[in-house]
Amino acid sequence: MKTASPFLELENGPRVNVTLDGMALSLPRGANLAAALLAAGVGVFRRTPVSNAPRGPFCMMGACFDCLIEIDGTTRQACMIEVTDGLEIKRPHRDEALA
Amino acid sequence: MTRSDLVVIGAGPAGMAAAAQAAELGLSVIVLDEQPRAGGQIYRDVDRVAPLRGDMLGADYTHGATLTAGLQHGAITHVNGAVVWAIEDQFRISYTVNGRGAQIDADRLLLATGALERPMPLPGWTLPGVMTAGAGQILLKQSGVLARNAVLVGSGPLLYLIAAQMVRAGTPPKAMIETQSRSDIAGTARHLGGALRGWRYLVKGLKMLASITRVGVPRHTGATDIAIEGTDKAQAVTFKRNGRSHRIACDTVFLHHGVVPNTQAARSLNIAHTWDAAQRCFIPQLDSWGQSDKSGVFIAGDGAGIGGARAAEFAGTIAALQIAFEAQRLTREDRDRRAAAPRAKLAHELAVRPFLDAAYPPYAQALLPHDATIICRCEEITAGDIRSYAGLGCIGPNQTKAFGRAGMGPCQGRYCGLGVTAILVDATGQTPDETGYYRIRPPLKPVTLGELAGMDISAPDAAE
């Protein structure tokens, strides 16, 4: 999966296991979640409620709210979260996107 | 309720310098910052990253460690991961940290909320893979994550900085599509005096450019009609240059045509802002100490008008001196004596700005985009929608909310506000000051019921 990523990771620290829509992912512990997901090859973080358009991180500084993901049922900004072991991440409006 | 002499919002250069100066003069200071570690965006995560990638990021970045060291003063409480969502009168600040709400009181308030990228609405700018150049820098600085196949689009020194850093990291950008033209450079002649006073920046800029061109990164200057192609992600950038059409395939697009003050917190306090024609954005009205028209509220750094990181540092120190004077920790003579050196340095830092503003103006077609281009990313409102509201009699940004929810999504207008004002100015013939900006109200960031229910009024000590 990492080789398909348009991003290159320079750091090579310890990794932890998380899930994204039930799929297992290994991400660097303590990393910025949005950066870690991008480096893991995840481009689309959510679909918009207005038009179901795909979105991913845009500003990386907590201002644009485009990297919204769902953690434990709460919508959060991925760029403002650090990776911890066992995070269960969901992509908002995924079901509509697949329909 | 914790009460402190000064609450600083933002731990970038202005906030860190102000906190250190105020603490040195005997004030109790609480610094609230959204990020997990101090530095702001310019020095993001500098204490952890400088030993890892300091060489790649350069001395201008590692300088930030001198400022984070200043936060270690015993009179400073630095609360990281603190998202401020309300500021009420005289002054009660509400924020969330570790999933719990908290409140603190302050005699005085310094807003050091920094800058945002100037929104650059282009066809396709909402696609995954399209980010701000600032985001690209943050990925590199904080996370050591580099785009392998990126195109940089826009204008301004930050574009060259990130390109130079990517070159040093061994993953140069695929191309630079630059919007400034020869006539922009020709129009800078009257600012040359200031540019020469800031010659160090010009030399740095030339060195960066040389490092980019040396490895063969193509530069397409004077580009127009820029659009990003893709369905579920960015796949290519198309543009015109000298009448010819170009298409460059890529995975990542970094956009940049300047930064603008992040005025969200200041506007929520109803602080007066005026249009700055040179910087093409609204800036808060301040006196030479950074004092706003609201007693006790100071603003320093890029949030007060774009000056860059070093200027922010000096402005933070200057504001802290006045705050200490008001708090009777400093005589007027002492204040003025201590302010002389930072004032001189600030003037020196700002000397190059008029040149940079003229040489690298915003991309005209992103200030007044085509009808089909999305302006409000959250609510997916297009430039044509805003124009149609104007045709129906809508004259101000706040009315556009009623017409079509522009600015009412989660970002609360941060990335559409200036665009909406510009389109209305163009459509109505009013000035930017007459047209105005969104009225910003709390919560400044979304807050959950759980965060409110878990409100911890003994913070911030318990929240650290």
Q: Could you explain the architecture of this structure?
A:
Chain B: One of its GO terms (molecular function) is oxidoreductase activity. The complex is a heterodimer of chains A (99) and B (464). Chain A contains two helices and eight strands, in the order E-E-E-H-E-E-E-E-E-H. Chain A is of the alpha+beta class. Chain A has a single domain, classed as 2Fe-2S iron-sulphur cluster binding domain, sarcosine oxidase, alpha subunit, N-terminal domain (Ubiquitin-like (UB roll), Roll), CATH 3.10.20. In chain A, the strands form two sheets. A five-stranded mixed beta sheet of chain A has the order 3-2-8-6-7, covered by helices on one side. In chain A, strand 4 and strand 5 form a beta hairpin. The two termini of chain A are 24 Å apart. The model of chain A has no long low-confidence stretch (mean pLDDT 90). By secondary structure, chain B is of the alpha/beta class. Chain B folds into three domains: 186 residues, FAD/NAD(P)-binding domain (3-Layer(bba) Sandwich); 136 residues, FAD/NAD(P)-binding domain (3-Layer(bba) Sandwich); 67 residues, Arc Repressor Mutant, subunit A (Orthogonal Bundle). Helix content of chain B is 38%, strand content 22%. In chain B, the strands form six sheets. In chain B, strands 1, 2, 3, 4, 5, 6 and 20 form a seven-stranded mixed beta sheet that branches. Chain B is globular and about 65 Å long. Chain B starts with a strand and ends in an 11-residue tail after the last helix. The chains are: A alpha+beta (99), B alpha/beta (464). At the A-B interface, strand 1, helix 1 and strand 5 of A face strand 8, helix 5 and strand 9 of B.
